[in-house]
Amino acid sequence: MAQGNELRTFFEPKGVALVGISRTPGFGYGIPLVLKEHGWDGHIHLVNIAGGTLHDMPVYQRVADVPDPVDLAIVLVPARLVSSVLPEIANRGIKHVIIETAGFAEIGEVGQALQTETKETAHRLGLRIIGPNCVGVVNTANRFASVEIMDEALTPGPVSIIAQSGVFGNILLDGLHEKEVFIAKAVTLGNRLDVNECEVLNYLHQDDQTKVIMMYLEGAADGRLLLETLGRVTRDKPVIILKGGRTPAGRAATASHTASLSGEDQLYEAVFRQTGAIRAESLDQLVRLARTFATQPHPAGNRLAIVTGSGSLGVLATDSATSGGLTLPHLSETTERTVREAAPDWMNVRNPLDTGPSTQFSAALRAVVADPDIDMVLGITILPYAIFSSFEPLGLTPEMWFGDIDAIHAARPEKPLVICAIGNERFIGLIRKTSGRKVPVFDSPEGAAGTLASLAKYGSWKKSSR
Do 387 and 288 share a structural domain? Predict the structure, then answer.
């Protein structure tokens, strides 16, 4: 099994051979253009038996003709030809290969035979393989991507992705930056002919840029190994997992997608619970959790305070929080006194703290964040857009109503703070702006409270596992 540096070449190649590059628009045609745009011109070499040029770059007819340095091959030839090009790659001295081609075990018996042949050939030649049926890797630190990817998605961040599904990983990358989740590395494993999720977990465990790992998993290549690997990695870095194939119909679908045996869901649930892995129940929750874990510290305990402009939304958040194991204790005497000094008579100063239509949200949030009896805070911002838009021409800003949320958090960075904003999209966008990059903003009180519950649960598990 690859440990740490053995996978580094996949993410930090000196030179790349694209074997079987398409000369017409289609699969693989745009990869050279993307790599050139990202600064890899001169480090990529195109290979196609027809030769000639493509995108103003020479196309070599044989892998043997590719100049130095080259230590990674991306294979794009049809599935029936993959096994025959691997010896050419090995003879050129290349030991790391990404096979992006589909048409292997995921299509049935014929494809399984091709995959078995390819695996035996790779093993005999001493090659390390990612794929087949994948789109490979992304490394934002050096702007290397073996797939067409938006420039905005290469903004470096602390989250790394492991996805069995190639297109899932690619599409996820396309939208994560819009949700302020920024990536360090990503790898799509496909059918896992060789490199599997446990090897990549080990690599990311040692990767300095990776602080949080998010996974889309349809099934484990080795269940016992997954248990051991997760138990080791999660002691240092949170691993958030969205598990596909939970139902019998879903499990059947995985077999025709990445040729995965997804197994019984209860077994995976037990593995995640035992190892401290955080399970996401949906794609939306996976993204919310990644955003929260990437920006917020682990809380000292499970005591939550809610400051809200709506009592009903505070109730919904409370239900979600307490269902997740959080408590809503009384606020400290100092906090109550501070808030009451400026609060109208009708405002109840308790937890959840409902500021209603008063102008006390900012002061209440600041006081609660400073409360030593509170471990984490959820702020729920709400204001009818008709009111906001009518006062906006007069200079009303979200900061005047809800405070400089970014600055409030910066004053107590050791305490998790999450914001929920509901209403008009422009209003939500302005709340995101005043919250800054380090305070997550979600559009669901239940989802926001749930992420804090998961954060506290992981923090508690991590302490107990020491």
Answer: no
pLDDT in tens, 9-33: 999 999 999 999 988 888 788 999 9
Choose one of 248, 277, 292: the last residue of a domain.
292
HSE-up (13 A, CA, CB side) for residue 205: 17
Structure tokens of 192? Answer: 């896992």
Neighbouring C-alpha atoms within 13 Å toward the C-beta of 173: 35
Q: What is the pTM of this model?
A: 0.91
Q: Do 305 and 286 fall within a single domain? A: no
Which residue do the tokens 């080791």 mark?
232
Q: Which residues contact 402 (CB under 8 A, 6 or more apart)?
A: 361, 362, 365, 379, 381, 431, 434
What's the mean pLDDT in 447-458? 97
Q: Please tell me whether residues 133 and 21 are part of one structural domain.
A: yes
Print the domain residue range for 349.
Answer: 297-465
The CA distance from 30 to 430, in Å, is 36
According to DSSP, the β-strands at 304-308 and 239-243 are unpaired
Q: Which of 259, 292, 325 is the last residue of a domain?
A: 292
For residue 431, give the nearest of 396, 405, 411 by alpha carbon: 405
**Please, are residues 454 and 289 in contact by the beta-carbon 8 Å criterion?**
yes
For residue 297, say if its preceding peptide bond is cis, omega within 30 degrees of 0: no
Q: Same domain, yes or no, for 228 and 101?
A: yes
Please confirm whether the linkage preceding 248 is cis (ω < 30° from 0): no
Number of domains in the chain: 2
Q: In this structure, how many other beta carbons lie within 10 angstroms of the beta carbon of residue 54?
A: 19
